[in-house]
Automatic annotation (TrEMBL):
PANTHER family, alphabetized: DUF6594 DOMAIN-CONTAINING PROTEIN (PTHR34502:SF4), DUF6594 DOMAIN-CONTAINING PROTEIN-RELATED (PTHR34502)
Native source organism of the sequence: Glarea lozoyensis (strain ATCC 20868 / MF5171)
Protein name: DUF6594 domain-containing protein
Entry keyword set: Coiled coil, Membrane, Transmembrane, Transmembrane helix
Phylogenetic lineage: Eukaryota, Fungi, Dikarya, Ascomycota, Pezizomycotina
Coiled-coil segments: 64-94
Region annotation (Disordered) ranges: 1-20
Length: 317
């Protein structure tokens, strides 16, 4: 039985330029290549983490500039018409400046002056709508999450059929300019980024991803299940949070020396801040707030212990 191929690590498929399937008799059928193979690879991952496409930032920027330049010309023409209308003495023209239906009517009748202005209105409306739609779409793409480096590397290795031993590319899945689609990660967008992509999840995926693989027998490939990874990270985070809280309380309860207690409070607080700052995507204000709350709990606990039991003796009358 052929060993599973790791899609997340980018191991090459059984055939460099084809997607492998299994027929009912158990034999392997090499039947898909090119766009069909790439499309099947993209939808192969049930977590859809491989739905990665080019953003074409440079072309999008140029397209927006073209729209902007075109609208600037239309705006200048509109200003020219407005200036002419200010000096217009014709009664019909004055009416058309105030009544939209009259302007539309006169333009439909073929009156050249109103026809030109009505046509400009329609052209501006169409161009502005397209321009705003392009701006909105580009903004969404720029604010979208980048795909993970490991997934891009895996897709690129598979796409270029990079040999695991020599690290040399083989026959690309697509030819021509499409061979470079995975070269620049900053120009890529993940349509469905895996949830909980914090530093801890990324570290575990890159270092211990082999323990979260699931394979599909129909094509001999394996993928990292982000659902399993997310579940494990959640459990690990819960355990780590419990250790940081109860471990600190127990150790502070055992130690009686005041200087040692203050040092341990500082140490546990630094450890907590390091875990929150390095293993999560918490922002600076969240790190400060969480660390302050954690330190406050420890200080209250230590203060109660330092106060000790009451030594006051009450004497009855």
């Amino acid at each position: 039985m052929a060993r599973p191929r790791d899609i997340e690590r980018g191991s090459p498929p059984l055939e460099p330029d084809r997607t492998t399937l299994v027929d009912p008799g158990g034999g392997i059928i090499n039947c898909k290549r090119g766009f069909a193979a790439v499309a099947e690879k993209i939808v192969f991952d049930p977590d859809r983490s491989t739905t990665i496409y080019r953003r074409f930032d440079k072309l999008s920027a140029r397209n927006l500039l073209f729209y902007q330049a075109e609208l600037a010309e239309l705006e200048e023409l509109q200003d020219k018409y407005d200036e002419e209308d200010c000096n217009e003495k014709d009664a019909i023209s004055k009416e058309c400046q105030r009544d939209w239906l009259e302007l539309k009517k006169r333009a439909t009748e073929g009156r050249e002056r109103e026809k030109a202005r009505f046509g400009l209105c329609m052209e501006i409306r169409e161009k502005v709508e397209r321009y705003h739609a392009a701006l909105g779409a580009h903004q969404i793409l720029l604010n979208s999450q980048l795909p993970s480096q490991s997934t891009v590397t895996a897709m690129r290795n598979w796409f270029l059929n990079i040999n695991e031993e020599t690290q040399k590319p083989g026959i690309s899945q697509l030819w021509g300019a499409s061979e470079k689609i995975y070269d620049d990660i900053n120009d890529l967008v993940a349509l469905h980024a895996p949830p909980d992509q914090d530093r801890l999840s990324t570290f575990i995926q890159n270092s211990f991803g082999i323990f979260f693989m699931t394979s599909r027998p129909e094509n001999g490939q394996a993928i990292i299940s982000h659902r399993r990874l997310s579940r494990f990270v959640t459990i690990l985070s819960t355990i780590l949070a419990s250790v940081l809280l109860f471990g600190a309380i127990i150790s502070l309860y055992i130690v009686k020396n005041q200087n040692a207690l203050l040092g341990m409070v500082s140490g546990w607080t630094v450890l907590f801040a390091a875990c929150v700052g390095l293993l999560t995507n918490a922002k600076r204000d969240q790190v400060f707030a969480g660390t302050a709350a954690y330190a406050a709990v420890l200080v209250v606990f230590v203060s109660g212990n330092l106060a000790g039991p009451s030594t006051c003796t009450c004497i009855g009358a």
